[in-house]
Design goal:
mainly alpha, 2 helices
């Protein structure tokens, strides 16, 4: 569940960064996708190693 939270936070952060840099719709989508994937990976590691206490 933490990984989905990381995905949402990452996608939102990426979209906001692209919007602040005056990007077009494709830039906003690209930033949201990249930051969303990074957030998903970080959220997965947080969920496995911190919330559940290790593998």
């Amino acid at each position: 569940m933490v990984n989905l939270l990381g995905l949402l936070i990452g996608a939102t952060l990426g979209a906001l960064i692209a919007w602040r840099r005056n990007g077009n719709r494709l830039d906003i989508l690209h930033y949201a996708g990249v930051f969303g994937l990074i957030g998903l990976i970080i959220g997965t590691f947080v969920g496995v190693y911190i919330v559940r206490g290790g593998a």
